[in-house]
Amino acid sequence: MAGLGTEAEREPLLGHLRAGSREWDVTETEEHYKSRWRSIRVLYLTMFLSSVGNVAVVRSYIAGATSLEERTGSMANTSTCQALGFILGPVFQTCFVLIGEKGVTWDTIKLQINMYTAPVLLGAVLGILNIILIITILREHRVNDSGQQCKNTNFEEASTDEPHILQRNIDQVAVVATNVLFFVVLFIFALFETILTPLTMDMYGWTQEQAVLYGGIILAVLGVEAVVIFMGVKLLSKTIGERAVLLGGLTVVLAGFLILLPWGSQLPKIQWEDLHNNSVPNTTFGETIIGLWKSASERENEPPTGCPVEQAWCLYTPVIHLAQLLTSAGLLGIGYPACNVMSYTLYSKIIGPRPQGVYMGWLTASGSGARILGPVFISHVYTYLGPRWAFSLVCGIVVLTITLLGVVYKRLVAFSVRHGGIQE
Prior knowledge:
The chain has 14 helices and two strands; from the N terminus they run H-H-H-H-E-E-H-H-H-H-H-H-H-H-H-H. The chain has about 425 residues and is mostly helical.
């Protein structure tokens, strides 16, 4: 076993086991350990370079190639690399603006490199580099929940050769509940991203350009905050456990949306263009004088700002103060990443040592559905009922989710722990 080399890594680990053999009893070699972590780090890079379309595959591989003790940290690193990719991608694209629209042209192959083509070419080069690393370094590895090496991830042994623990059933209630939890977590953040721009335009009278700029800055800060949280939950989960971190994250998210509820007596500025008299609700004397001082042509050239009068709630719903918005965003930046990584880490542990590709596909589909339905939900409720109703309903959804987590709390345990293979 100590002499296993690179060639052996290409074959199903341990070769062909005899009937009745126990794959749990095989101690992982140092060479296998190094190869396993080289492969996992290649997938970290894959998530950094291009996470779209391969999330389920990467999570499935890491779930099969890590022990219970390693799982949370590896999943957190995966999310960290994905978040860094989302943050740095637009930064690189911004840097290519320096090349300009004309750029340089390679006449031999009729290739023009400018601010539009350079990001695409860089993405293609990084994709090719990623493919080379996957072909040359990535190997199939599988360990059980204790960290002992098993057959490779995609190899399923006949039932007569499998350990008895693999014959046990997966807790489908826990699987469905975790899918629901993951759906709600992504649903909440998707709707916050969607509502940020119209909310700031209505509440603070920002132009569309200002709302997009400042909203982008807020989301960028949240992205950096998420990277820090991903690193922090690795340590915190070792102390209090994944379920407690998930519960704490949902509680922080609930606090964030409670803070976002409108209060006070100050009303938002109403778009003057939509009014047919000279009175502008909630404007100061100075703003009124400035409006009268400007010529009609100047007013026509300026886009209307403020809360549209067509939204009836603008006339009686208080302003959400900027301090409320920033505090709420900061809390969501803490709660969302913690809930995100803990939910699919628990999910992988609940499924256990079996191949997880199909299950991870369901989880990814759940998250994709949340990103579709979240913006649709918040857009309609916010437009017709206003922020008070919209955020109150979100708070209700989070409360129901916390209740669901409390109901299934004791069932969200690792497969091996549930069946007595490993002590929790």
